[in-house]
Amino acid sequence: MDSPYDVLGLDADADDAEVEQAYRRRVKEAHPDRGGSAEEFQRVREAYEVVVSGRAAPPTAEPDEADGPIDEWGTDAPPTARNGARADAAGRAGGTAASGARGSGQTGADGSAQTTTRVEYLNYEVVADHGWEVDDPDLFETAAGADLDHEDYGLFLAEPGETLLEAAEARGFAWPFACRGGACANCAVAVVDGELDSTVDNVLTDDLVDRGFRLSCIGRPVTEELRVIYNVKHLPGLDDLRLPADRFERARADY
């Protein structure tokens, strides 16, 4: 049974930067457009997710079935808690460390189940610069093999209860926003896969919602996986709903 560290070509004591570098190297090598295969590409991605989620056992460790079900990686703990190690994906995605891990089975104030969400993000400016199509079913796979900067493409874990914008900022990212209350489209994202809970009244029209747009300042991830394209505020239909960001910055400073 291969360890996820073996798949990434890492030692078990690799630091955050080494894990990130190894992932970007291996995902490019495994990409089908670069001579790899879809199976190898997926295995590299899964290995990376296991390492950043804190489930990865050292390469020499023997899994103990008495501790619970053993998966294909020899791990036996939920994605967010294996002795508290590497519970946050912040360092892997290029952000700063956030708070420690919390279990994926929490319950919200309304009694609804909450889960830690694996967020895969992509900057729309990069999509436009490369001439990629937003509706390309392989868009994120293409981005993964394109050697993009951390702020333009990557992964992080959003904790239960966090809005998408809060989760991004807690990991060191500076995504667009203005009002933080659903009254503008500055923080809009296009949801490619997964769901954001956007029950709060907001400025988006029904048409924009039907096209998959959500507001990251009020939207909370409610699925285990989420793919979003951020920085879409200039797209048709959203551009007219933007507000000057400095208006709110001045208001906060005056207060």
UniProtKB/TrEMBL annotation:
Skewed-composition ranges (Low complexity): 80-101
SUPFAM superfamilies tied to this protein: 2Fe-2S ferredoxin-like, Chaperone J-domain
- Feature: compositional bias, Acidic residues: 62-74
Pinpoint the 2Fe-2S ferredoxin-type domain residues: 144-234
Q: Which cofactor does it need?
A: [2Fe-2S] cluster
Q: Which SMART domains match?
A: DnaJ
Annotated J domain ranges read 3-74
Alphabetized UniProt keyword annotations: 2Fe-2S, Electron transport, Iron, Iron-sulfur, Metal-binding, Transport
Q: Does the keyword Iron apply?
A: yes
Write out the ranges of the annotated region (Disordered): 53-114
Q: Which PANTHER family match?
A: FERREDOXIN, FERREDOXIN-2, CHLOROPLASTIC
One of the record's GO molecular function terms: metal ion binding
The family annotation for this protein states:
Belongs to the 2Fe2S plant-type ferredoxin family.
Query: What is this protein called in UniProt?
Result: Ferredoxin
